[in-house]
Amino acid sequence: MESTFSSPAEAALQREAGAAGLLTPLADLDRVYELERVVGFVRDLGCQRVALQFPDQLLGDAGVVAARLEEVTESKMFILGDTAYGSCCVDVLGAEQAGAQALVHFGPACLSPPARPLPVAYVLGQRSVALELCAKAFEAQNPDPTAPVVLLSEPACAHALEALATLLRPRYLDLLVSSPALPLPVGSLNPELESLERFGRRFPLASGRCLEEYGAFYVGGSEASPDPDLDPDLSRLLLGWAPGRPFSSCCPDTGQTQDEGARARRLRARRHYLIERARDARVVGLLVGTLGVARHREALTHLRNLTQAAGKRSYVLALGRPTPPKLANFPEVDVFVLLACPLGALAPWPSGSFFRPVLAPCELEAACNPSWPPPGLAPHLTHYADLLPGSPFHVPLPPPESELWDTPDVSLITGELRPPPAWKPSNDLGCSALTLRPQLELAESSPAGKCAKSLFPSELFPQIQPIHLQSPPFAASFLSSRSWQGLQPRLGQTPVKGAVSGRRGIAIAYEDEGSS
After folding, report:
1. Closest C-alpha to 363, from 238, 278, 265
2. How far apart are CA 178 and CA 198, in angstroms?
3. Residue-averaged pLDDT of the chain
4. How far, in Å, CA of 387 to CA of 368, rounded?
5. Which string of DSSP letters, residue by residue, matches 154-187?
6. Which residues contact 247 (CB under 8 A, 6 or more apart)?
7. For residues 400-412, average pLDDT
8. 302 phi and psi, to 5 degrees?
9. Would the pLDDT of 104 be above 90?
10. Range with the poorest average pLDDT among 40-54, 91-105, 378-392
11. CB distance 74 to 48 below 8 Å
């Protein structure tokens, strides 16, 4: 129990800080961090205060990079680290606290639009790619030269995709190259091509073509990775890609390939299970996982309205980065929904570490919106902005009088029939037992479908009085069923005593308890 929801007390005292990360050789610093491009970005804007955001694994180079940029640009640089939520999102709040006029983001990025207007430059890195090995691996995985295939990569390998496509285009005719969806200047797109932005990438589709026609070849990952499922960028591609199209990955160092079909099916099966858990849930915890991504307030309002329409109680929790010890403090919550960027919502969680399941907003939409397409027809949307009005994927809730709310639904987990939402009125206008109001009148229905209220009129049976039930809140009813409900104040019932010395030590081992 201690290892699941908390760490031993001695771990905090014995933990070593360690190195911030592997230091990049000074000779490669300009190439890896693209300092020339960053200098041009700062000079073009004329900024005097610039924020530099580094992920944890690159903080070892932060001081040297900031010093070199200050020397060349003569601008004040501020290093941002240890972000409140995820390092892939632009930390606009930290930049505002430092009074920065622009921000440079280093490392992997979700490329989500920031909540506040701020000039941002992205430096994704340039990982070395063995082009010849990757080209041979592509030919082995795609023997048909006429099959449509799109080249994908992790952000650090995006610089090598055009060179890889140059080696493959003499044989493969229908080859599409994706690129990171970085902010582009006006007029930089080819008007003959329809640029589609999905999964944080830009796809230059020809007129009349759609992305669902293409297979995928992903360049990224590492053979030394203990579990490839922990890569959120690859996970969102596998979940959102067309299920009937081939998807393979290639290690950029060795050229070793792997068919990702089995992993994609495993991820989709896990998501279908989470949707069923959300349908069975009565209390939903909405976790605020970002404050710097655009439209997060609108998305939070949308999720609250969604749970209310489905007859569920929701609570908004702002806890920073979710951890098992934090969420274990809310045992009355059946499922949690993490409102975060696409990479944050699919962040790697250790299997079985959380007391309750943690879902993505798309899974809650599929569970609570009866107009949502059934599994196999609905796309898996990794960004919560795709669920909001104005998006081509937005599906509005049906009106209250729609028959979709009355569709019978059986839980695939418990095997029981799920009741309709609590606010949904009964078909019989004379029976108002399920009408939402402060007090509920208890009435049983006869086999003939009539309400018991009509069988026992008050003029014939004055001794029978209607029973009124007060509907308690879910959290309050859960608290009343617990054996320990917290400390009792007992104001005025205990004698007043003077202050005395308390116990020394920590709760797990006080000094007067000795060692056991």
Report:
1. 278
2. 10
3. 79
4. 13
5. -GGGGGGHHHHHHHHTTT-SSEEE-EE-----TT
6. 215, 216, 218, 237, 238, 241, 259, 260, 261, 264
7. 83
8. -65, -45
9. yes
10. 378-392
11. no
